[in-house]
Specification:
By secondary structure, the chain is of the alpha/beta class. About 40% of the residues lie in helices and about 25% in strands. The strands form two sheets. Strands 1, 2, 3, 4, 5, 6, 7 and 8 form an eight-stranded mixed sheet that branches. A three-stranded antiparallel sheet has the order 9-10-11. Helix 5 links the parallel strand 1 and strand 2. Helix 2 crosses helix 3 and helix 4 runs parallel beside helix 5. The longest helix has 18 residues. It starts with a helix and ends in an 8-residue tail after the last helix. Bound molecules: S-adenosylmethionine (SAM). The site of S-adenosylmethionine has 21 residues, from helix 4 and helix 5.
């Protein structure tokens, strides 16, 4: 576990202990919340988190995973965008996963979290790693000001296409770099493709994960990050494994110069006998399979390459 993962888990354990909520109640809330998210039943009328217990259940069960996905997407900003990151606004910030991820990557970053559910804001403030600004508001009401980075993590599945368009217009006017992260489902990928096309139309260039600016050549582009599960997490999720794989999909769009990958590994590499097989998205906008035999000089590098890496 990295030090920031440990800090997050410690903060969550403390919040749970301080709340005095029995496990069975938290588990009931976590199950109901997961069901709402899985069936994509969340919208303006039915918010995901409506009170302190929902916010706590979300933070314990989902925040470690959304934090990891956002942390991975922000690594792509560091690697592929040539511009400073000193100011950050996170829209639909929930209990602060993106703020945690950005603060871990850019210490000293000035962060504002905009979130409409006051229960999530209150818990986020308790958990916060730093002196972040919290604004309890609808993302459409964000006041707007020039900012280096805007993140929108796991929010678009709660917004209608019209509201998503409005939010992208607002953010495109103010941010140099925009990161959108969604669950790694086919519908999450469709929302990312839609955001990608709109950001290109607003004059942004795509820095990651795509190594090109062309149309996406695959039906379902997604990645996975493995994260440790604490005992409480296992108990609430009825799981026995001490890890889980969070599937996610994302786009990094920017007005800064970019250094995109030559190609991106878009599936888990396989290693049949004496070779590595990589599924790649390439700089010409095609999906290709590369077989690297053991006799090739690139074999060792291919063996060390993971799903989501640049190649
Ligand atoms: C699935 S949670 C994601 C939270 C956080 N970004 C994360 O990655 O863990 C979605 C969040 O978006 C917030 N949200 C949805 N629509 C919003 C809106 N119109 N304005 C502000 N927040 C919104 C919800 O209240 C919820 O906290």
């Amino acid at each position: 576990m990295s030090s920031v993962d440990s800090q997050l888990h410690a903060a969550l354990a403390l919040a749970r202990a301080a709340s005095g909520v029995p496990h069975h109640e938290l588990r009931r809330r976590a199950e109901a919340l997961s069901h709402r998210y899985r069936t994509e039943q969340i919208n303006d009328a039915t918010p995901g988190m409506s009170d302190a217990l929902d916010a706590l259940a979300y933070a314990v069960v989902r925040m470690p995973a959304t934090f990891r996905a956002l942390h991975t997407a922000l690594a792509a900003v560091e690697r592929h965008v040539d511009g400073p990151v000193t100011t950050h606004v996170d829209l639909g910030g929930g209990t602060g996963a993106a703020a945690w991820a950005a603060a871990a990557r850019w210490p000293g970053l000035a962060i504002e979290v905009v979130e409409r559910q006051s229960a999530a804001v209150r818990l986020g403030q308790k958990l916060a790693l730093g002196n972040w600004l919290w604004t309890t508001a609808d993302v459409r009401r964000w006041s707007g000001r020039p900012v280096d980075l805007i993140t929108i993590g796991y929010v678009f599945n709660e917004l209608t296409p019209d509201v998503r368009r409005e939010v992208l217009q607002l953010t495109a006017r103010h941010a140099r770099t925009i990161v959108v992260v969604e669950p790694g489902t086919p519908s999450g990928h469709a929302r990312i493709l839609d955001a990608r096309a709109q950001l290109i139309a607003h004059g942004f260039r795509i820095a990651a994960p795509c190594p090109h600016q062309h149309d996406c050549p695959v039906d379902w582009c997604h990645f996975a990050t493995r994260l440790p599960r604490t005992e409480l997490h296992r108990h609430l999720k009825d799981g026995t494994r001490n890890f889980e794989d969070e599937k996610f999909t994302y786009v990094v769009a920017t007005r800064h110069p970019i250094h995109p990958a030559a190609s991106r590994v878009i599936a888990r590499p396989t290693t049949p006998k004496h070779r590595v097989v990589l599924d790649l998205c390439t700089s010409t906008g095609t999906a290709e399979q590369l077989v690297v035999p053991k006799s090739s000089p690139g074999y060792r590098a291919a063996r060390d390459t993971a799903w989501g890496d640049a190649w």
